[in-house]
Amino acid sequence: MSSAAATGLLRAPAALLRRLPRETRDTLLLLGVIAFTTAPHLSRLPPWCAMLVVSVLGWRAGIALRGGALPGRWVMWALLVLTGALTLWTERTLLGREAGVTMLVALLSLKTLELRARRDALVVFFLGFFLVLTQFLYSQSLLTGLWMLLALWGLLSALVLAHMPVGRPSLGAAAAVAARATLLGLPLMALLFALFPRIGPLWGLPQDAAGKTGLSGTLRLGGVASIANDDTIAFRLRFFGPRPLDSQLYFRGPVLASTNGREWTRLTPTVAPLQRVRAELQTRGEALRYEMTIEPGRLPVLPLLETTPDQPGAAPQSEGWLFSLRPDLQWQADRPIGERIRIEASAWLDFRHGPREPVAGLRDFMALPAQAHLRTRAWAAELRRRPELQRANARQLSAAVLQHIRTGDYSYTLEPGVYDGDAIDEFWLDRKFGFCEHFAAAYVVVMRSLDVPARIVTGYQGVEAQRGGYFVVRQSNAHAWAEIWLPDEGWLRVDPTAAVAPERIQSGRSLVPPPGFVANALATLDPTLAASLRDAWEELNNRWNQWVLNYSRSQQFDLLRALGVHTPSWQDLATLLITALCAASSVGAGWAWWDRHRQDPWQRLARRVQERLRKAGVLVQAHDPPRTRAARVRASLGTAGESVAAQLEVLDRLRYAEGVRAGAVQRSWWPAFAAAARQLPRCA
């Protein structure tokens, strides 16, 4: 297709809009804006609601194009009752977020079938503005913000058109007025954003974690591999100091120690812990201070760097959240992390934890189901009978198992396939294809079969560098490793994956999941283009998260300190906000007073003409156009006022000519009119 043909196709809709009557054009614009505003909700709405919206908007557009009649009152009542019944059927209630948004979207679309008067249009506008706000109940991403900004601009443009009752104002002129109004409101928006008191981060509303990716509290073989196929960001990281080696970057998630032979879950101890976590944890060396921005997930779990202790100044903190450290060194939140949170903490990469002497609770970490993994347990018993291992301790037994992985033709793969029957036996003795959780789970089963306490730890391993000093940890960095208990040492991290794929641990990079269609097309054009575009977008998202979504009360107080308030409080914040709003109101009132006198120079010119004619005894009304005034001059003064009447007719042609400005008329036309008016007789 030639460029001229493409340009013609793009101009065709604009030409069609110009040929339509104004009412039809404005109605189609409003319907298009409503469709644009509603579009992000359609994937979350019940199917019947999405079909209703599309059908009603299409029906209303057809009525506008044909000039047909709107449906009657009984039809509207029937649709309204049907909408309420379907909402109650699908949501089981008419209250709450899901039911409320469903009803709002449906009622907004139905209201377009009642666009008979300007009042109906105003109701549609304000319902549309409210619908814009509801988008942020589901997502506060930068993309959502940009989409809703365009929706707001469209609604304001349609509202401006509704307040232009005369003539046929262009869509561009209405859009320009809406854009100027939005820009004028930006300073006030920024002021309220910076100073309006808040309890938690912006849009810190409860979010449903269902459907979100990330670690879970259980493990079935293949589960971590499915997460690793997801390339979305799990959290962002920034170090306040030198970056550690990738092989040191383990982010601890749920610790799993109980199994039924198919699934691993958290352990419910049969013996109460005998020692507190803080007493069992020993840190050595220098602390590493870091900042972490965690994306919404499914669990009340913080995947913090191993190990982050429960000590003043080191433990994580975030406004509105309570965090606690479990005996297995897993940081727990008081509720599922359904919103983005930012924390600062300190970690010690050199540490020891767990009891140093045998305690009764350690037997829980050697338990295996009676009829599970029989072949693997038999293999472990055979390994123990080797002469060189008959007197081996736990560390030596672990080294022998890891050596078997290195030399046993095992393969590390993201797609090991489906395991039937006893997955551990099939992986360890037959297929030998697996992801990190296969190696970790099989290793733990073997060590328990050798009477060594062992458990699985899930989390993330490695980071990916990004612009601005930040590092990204993706879901594809999801990892599983093991811990064994050694006398006099406590729990020791053992990563069986390092025995078969050391590059996975040393580089901190997981296997690359298959690219999507768009990413594959971009990679075909330029191998680095897709990665560069992704990094740029993620950096922009990170700035949005850091400076907008995570703007909190502490940052408001930091702003007050920067303004000279030594010990800021809520009262100081409220005082500054009220003072700033009063000052802004005064400036706005002054500008409105000045603007009232300067706006519409045509009216000022008309008042001057009216005053000159009054002095000559010709009475005209303020709303009389120039041609009517010319007729009144002739009727009152006859031939004596002919020159003035002629000038008024010139003014009438200039007033309604396209592209003529009042300022130019003031300079060119007024002198001639004033000279003619001086020849008129004065009224006594």
Folded structure, characterized:
The chain is an alpha+beta fold. It folds into five domains: 13-184, no CATH class; 218-507, no CATH class; 517-549, no CATH class; 553-598, no CATH class; 601-677, no CATH class. It is built from 24 helices and 20 strands. A five-stranded antiparallel β-sheet has the order 12-7-2-18-17, covered by helices on one side. The chain has a five-stranded antiparallel β-sheet with strand order 9-3-16-19-20. It has a three-stranded antiparallel β-sheet with strand order 1-5-4, with no helix packed on it. α11 crosses α14, α21 (601-615) packs parallel to α24 and α22 (626-637) packs antiparallel against α23. It is elongated and about 135 Å long. It starts with a helix and ends in a 7-residue tail after the last helix. Mean pLDDT is 79; it is low at 6-10, 200-213 and 274-278.
Major sheet strand order: 12-7-2-18-17
- The rounded distance between the terminal residues' Cα atoms is 77 Å
> What is the average of the pLDDT values?
79
Task: Tally the beta strands.
Answer: 20
Sketch the major β-sheet. 5 strands, antiparallel
SSE class: alpha+beta
Describe, in short, the structure shown.
This protein is α+β, with helices and mostly antiparallel strands and 684 residues long.
Write the layout of secondary structure elements.
Elements lengths: L2 H17 L2 H21 L4 H20 L6 H19 L5 H15 L6 H17 L7 H21 L8 H25 L22 E2 L3 H6 L4 E7 L10 E7 L1 E2 L4 E2 L11 H4 L1 E3 L3 E7 L6 E2 L1 E2 L17 E3 L5 E3 L7 E7 L2 E3 L21 H11 L9 H14 L3 E2 L10 H9 L1 E2 L1 H14 L4 E8 L2 E2 L5 E4 L3 E9 L3 E5 L2 H4 L1 H6 L9 H9 L3 H21 L3 H10 L7 H29 L2 H15 L10 H12 L4 H14 L6 H16 L7
Parallel strand pairs: 14-15
Antiparallel strand pairs: 1-5, 2-7, 2-18, 3-9, 3-16, 4-5, 6-13, 7-12, 8-11, 10-11, 16-19, 17-18, 19-20
Helix pairs in contact: 2-3, 2-7, 3-5, 4-5, 5-6, 6-7, 7-8, 8-20, 11-14, 13-14, 21-24, 22-23, 23-24
